Each structure stands twice: as structure tokens, then as C-alpha cells.
Backbone:
């Protein structure tokens, strides 16, 4: 029996060794596919990226398309859940993420950010008769958040109990049914949700005084400063010629592209 | 009423996603899984030959087969998907460059590990007397297995293998974590557009139930057809 385990181990370790030694997939190109800007996003987060009549659209989808056009590349969208979205950047599944990713210190250590294209304002969403007003109030309360999102981390830092959800739609469900007390989320996303669900008795408290607008920017792999520069240039131009403001007004009904 | 309108609008899209993603993922993975499983099961039921060198090789191969089954049954499929698609590239192993290849590899190896045990049990459950009788009328060992033991084992294996296939069909929804917008993720996307979550979840449940029901009929048909192989 012992012999049998031992021989298995030798075979397995030599296979693993062989695989690890092979370096045939080193990526040196600027993008994972030449001439194509592969963009990672959720596709379930209206109005950032979502489906309308079967087609992917949203503020970030359109911004990414415009950026790709500026740098002469074809945009290609890859959709996955938020919690695996960031992981995919490490393993070169896409070149850049456009998904309302807020610039934080922790993320900056690990990834590159291009210039912000959006200043996301935070609201605290709760039932209409809810009494939470400040960040201090959420201590010990149940907040429905995606754990690794900036809102989720903010809630955690302020002592809330996190009820993990995959996205905003599920979070709103939990609040409506009383299984969570509140949720921190983007003001624009809430406005749109409330517009489509006018009967649901929820409200959103503006957190502007406590939480400054979080700049959201394209997030890239650390080893890709060349692409970062190109995207920066494109965003600068799109801000200047009014494309960003126009798209923001179209999807958020207000201009969120300035500080 | 509103639900029926939504169903008319969304069911075609959901079925389309099922045909484009869920069904091919499950079908290809299950076919590959069956091949892997049959090979693994045969290795595990083989008896050691007398030749010394062959015996050592045999022990080694059997060890690999057991290791493989242990590996894939002892970790969750979700973790396996993450390792294949997100983990291995950071160790510069990237033959899974494509989400489909990652998904099919993991699904087929995972199903194969479970099905290998099903097939092994089915082979072992055929009465030993059947093999002896076949050999006593002059069939070789391989012939005896091919014409007498395996057909009976197949009949025994159909219900549990159908279970594996049905589980696999539903488990393909895990592929959404590795960037495949399959049926369930599509329903979530539609829900994030119209915010009718409960209705969308019910619709997607209907889609899976329809597929599974068809598979159940296929299972019944296969059982009837292969019943004639069973010694009664």
C-alpha cells in the first residue's frame, strides 16, 4: 500500500513539474488579442452594463466602445460575476475592467488604473421607514453587499454585518423582504431601479457629506502601463469633446463625469 | 397575466441560451466524461497480470486512477473551475486559454470521476458466474467481458449515470463564474434589466425542468432497450 502511494506521488509531482517548467504562454503583447480591447464587466448592473432587448449596453459599455475606437482597437466584452471579475484580470482573461470599480489604495497596490470616467456617489438604501442616517448607524446592522465591491468594503469597515449577494438586484430583494436592513450602492443605479419599481417602499439617503464621490476608472493589469497610457489619452479626449457627459446624461439622467 | 407576457418574451431567449450553452456544455462534457470513466473503471477492476514488470506498471496505473478519482471527488466543482480558469495561468499554465475549454475539461473530469465509480460498481455487480460461464463455452476473457459482462453492466449503470447527466446539466450554471453567459446568468441579466427577479427565476427553473424531463424520457427508453441484456 505504501509503495503504491509513493509511486503515485512521484508520477504526479513529475507531471506538475513538467507543466510548471513550460513557459510557452508568456504574454508580452499589449492586449491579450492583438487589435482587440477585451473588456471585462458584469452585464447585470444597470445602467453601467446591462442587456437591453438582448444587446449589451450601458454607460460603461458605451464608454469602453468609444475608448476602443480612439485607440484603433475592436472592443470585445467578457461578462462574469463581480466576485470573479477582478481575479480574471490577474490571469489575463481581459485587458481592462469597466465596471464602476472605485479607485482604492488596496487596489492601486495590485492593479493599474487609467483616468476616471465617472464619479460615483454613494447612497444608503433602506426601507422607507428605516432610521439609518449616517455611516455610524450601520454598525451591527445587516447590509446586503457584494463582499469585494467598494461599497461592501465600506460597509464592513464601518462595522456592518455583511449579507453576501451577487449583485444589486438581489440586494434590493433582501431589503424589500426585510432580510437585510440596508445597502450601500451607487446613486445612479438606485435612481434607475426606483424609477422601474415605483411601488417598492424604499428610500436612499445621500452619503455625500461622509463619503466623497468615488472616482471609477478602467482597471488594468500591473504589467500593462503602455495600454494604460493609451486609454488615458482616449479618456482625456472623450472628456474634452463631451462624449462622456453626453453618455452620462443618457444613462444616468445627470452628468456624473466631473468631480 | 404579467407573468405570461414575460414568459412569452423571455422563454425563447432562455431556451436559445440553453441550446447554445447549457446543452453543448453538458453533452460534450458528459460524452468525454463517460470515456474517461469507462477507462478508469476498467483499470480499477482489472486483475494484476503475472509478469513482474507488467504487474508494477499495473499498480502504478491503478494508483493514478485512484488518485484521479480522489482528487476530483474531494474538491468542489466551483473550486476546480476557478483553479483551471483563473489559477493555473498565474503559474504560466494556460492551455485553458478559452473559457469553454476550461469548463469542458473540468466538467468532464469531474463527471468522469463520479461515473468511474458507478461503472466500476456496475461491472462488479454482474454475477461472477456470468463471466465463468462465458469462458467455459470458449470465449476469451476479453470476449467474455465484451459480449456478456459489459452489456449487463451497461443496463445496471443507466439509472445512476442518468443521475450524473442530470446533475451536470444543472451544474453547468457554474460556468457563469468563468465568463460564460449560460442560461442562468442570462436570466440574471434579464432580471437586472426588468427587476422581475422572482418571475425570471421561475422561468429559468422551467427551462431546466423541461431539459431534465426530456432526459428522463431518454433514460426510460434506454432502460427498456437494454433490459434484454440482463440475465433473469
Residues:
Amino acid at each position: 500500500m505504501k509503495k503504491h502511494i509513493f509511486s503515485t506521488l512521484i508520477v504526479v509531482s513529475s507531471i506538475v513539474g513538467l507543466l510548471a517548467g513550460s513557459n510557452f504562454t508568456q504574454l508580452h503583447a499589449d492586449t491579450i488579442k492583438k487589435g482587440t480591447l477585451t473588456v471585462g464587466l458584469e452585464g447585470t448592473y444597470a445602467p453601467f452594463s446591462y442587456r437591453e432587448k438582448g444587446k449589451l449596453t450601458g454607460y460603461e459599455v458605451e464608454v469602453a466602445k468609444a475608448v476602443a475606437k480612439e485607440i484603433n482597437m475592436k472592443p470585445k466584452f467578457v461578462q462574469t460575476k463581480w466576485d470573479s471579475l477582478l481575479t480574471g484580470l490577474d490571469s489575463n482573461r481581459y485587458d481592462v475592467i469597466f465596471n464602476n470599480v472605485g479607485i482604492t489604495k488596496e487596489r492601486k497596490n495590485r492593479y493599474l488604473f487609467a483616468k476616471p470616467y465617472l464619479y460615483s456617489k454613494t447612497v444608503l438604501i433602506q426601507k422607507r421607514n428605516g432610521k439609518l442616517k449616517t455611516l455610524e448607524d450601520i454598525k451591527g446592522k445587516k447590509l446586503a453587499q457584494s463582499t469585494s465591491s467598494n461599497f461592501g468594503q465600506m460597509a464592513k469597515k464601518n462595522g456592518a454585518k455583511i449579507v453576501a449577494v451577487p449583485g444589486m438586484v438581489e440586494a434590493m430583494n433582501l431589503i424589500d423582504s426585510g432580510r437585510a436592513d440596508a445597502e450601500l450602492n451607487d446613486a445612479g443605479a438606485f435612481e434607475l431601479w426606483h424609477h422601474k419599481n415605483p411601488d417598492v417602499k424604499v428610500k436612499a439617503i445621500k452619503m455625500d457629506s461622509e463619503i466623497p464621490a468615488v472616482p471609477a476608472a478602467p482597471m488594468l493589469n500591473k504589467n500593462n502601463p503602455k495600454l494604460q497610457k493609451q486609454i488615458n489619452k482616449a479618456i482625456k479626449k472623450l472628456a474634452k469633446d463631451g462624449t462622456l457627459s453626453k453618455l452620462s446624461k443618457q444613462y444616468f439622467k445627470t452628468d456624473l463625469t466631473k468631480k | 397575466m404579467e407573468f405570461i407576457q414575460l414568459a412569452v418574451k423571455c422563454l425563447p431567449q432562455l431556451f436559445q441560451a440553453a441550446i447554445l450553452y447549457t446543452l453543448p456544455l453538458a453533452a460534450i462534457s458528459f460524452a468525454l466524461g463517460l470515456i474517461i470513466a469507462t477507462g478508469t473503471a476498467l483499470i480499477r477492476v482489472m486483475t494484476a497480470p503475472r509478469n513482474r514488470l507488467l504487474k508494477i506498471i499495473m499498480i502504478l496505473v491503478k494508483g493514478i486512477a485512484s488518485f484521479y478519482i480522489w482528487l476530483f471527488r474531494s474538491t468542489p466543482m466551483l473550486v476546480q473551475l476557478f483553479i483551471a480558469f483563473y489559477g493555473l495561468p498565474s503559474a504560466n499554465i494556460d492551455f485553458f486559454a478559452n473559457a469553454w475549454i476550461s469548463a469542458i475539461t473540468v466538467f468532464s473530469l469531474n463527471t468522469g470521476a463520479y461515473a468511474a465509480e458507478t461503472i466500476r460498481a456496475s461491472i462488479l455487480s454482474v454475477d461472477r458466474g456470468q463471466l465463468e460461464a462465458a469462458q467455459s463455452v470458449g470465449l476469451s476473457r476479453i470476449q467474455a467481458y465484451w459480449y456478456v459482462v459489459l452489456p449487463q453492466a451497461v443496463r445496471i449503470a443507466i439509472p445512476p449515470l442518468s443521475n450524473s447527466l442530470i446533475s451536470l446539466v444543472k451544474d453547468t450554471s457554474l460556468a457563469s463564474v468563468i465568463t460564460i453567459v449560460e442560461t442562468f446568468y442570462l436570466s440574471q441579466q434579464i432580471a437586472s434589466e426588468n427587476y422581475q427577479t422572482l418571475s425570471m427565476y421561475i422561468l429559468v427553473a422551467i427551462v431546466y425542468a423541461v431539459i431534465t424531463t426530456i432526459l428522463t424520457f431518454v433514460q426510460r427508453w434506454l432502460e427498456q432497450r437494454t433490459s434484454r441484456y440482463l440475465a433473469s
About this structure: Residues 16-29 of chain A have pLDDT under 50 and may be disordered. The two ends of chain A are 68 Å apart (CA to CA).
